[in-house]
Design a protein that fits this description.
The protein is mainly α. It has one domain (5-196): ABC transporter involved in vitamin B12 uptake, BtuC. The protein contains 12 helices and no strands.
Length: 265
Amino acid sequence: MFELNFMQNAFMAGFIVSILCPFIGLFIVLRRNSMIGDTLSHSSFAGVAIGLVIGVNPLLTAFLFTSLCAIIIEFLRDYYKKYAELVMSIVLTLSLSIAIILISSGKASAKVDSFLFGSILTVTKSDILLITIIGGICLLILLFIYNKLIYVTFDESGAKTIGINVKLINYIFTLLVGATISLSIRIMGILVVSSIIVVPVATAMQLKKGFNKTLIFSMLFGFLDVMIGLVLSYYINSAPGGTIALTSVIMLILTLIFTNSTKSQ
């Protein structure tokens, strides 16, 4: 298995995804904004459709379109401050309508199944290069704004008081969410990509550690979910996205059982 080029590509892409997604996911969960993951993951579908129609790397067009949707979400939040869910619905409607029109036109040059459900067979060297470059940039930006992002996440009003540009941090973070999702769709698939963002975080939170330890455990669980899911998908010939998502839920259930049994002793 490990000597196969397509599996090597899948594991390399999976490693980056497994670290970046839970890193982003912890802040999403703490902000109580899990819906943004679903919205932007479905938005990436339109980006993929655009890439397939015009003959450009779908990951690149997904990244560009999802980033645009992320900016639109932050922009509209100023107009619908009390109705955040409405903003998500607007962007979701826009994205899916574009995707459906393009895919139904028959001009797409390849099947979209691999993007909807994930595929370990279709991860190419160019995809690895793109995922590595953009993923590395995202991680560096996250580390650069880490302290400010923590402050904004827990106390936005306090952050404004001490002079942090909250709006800029929110824009940057939303763009990072969009970039992370667009990079993950080759492995996870559009339909379940949000699972690797949220579920490992939910698993790590059951351990009830501090913020930094929860972040580390989130990435550890994310890594285990992706690697185990990829191996299982190879042997049972299933879509990696669904297999990884199921693995992450099983890991959550096992952690819940473990923590509850520890409490009862």
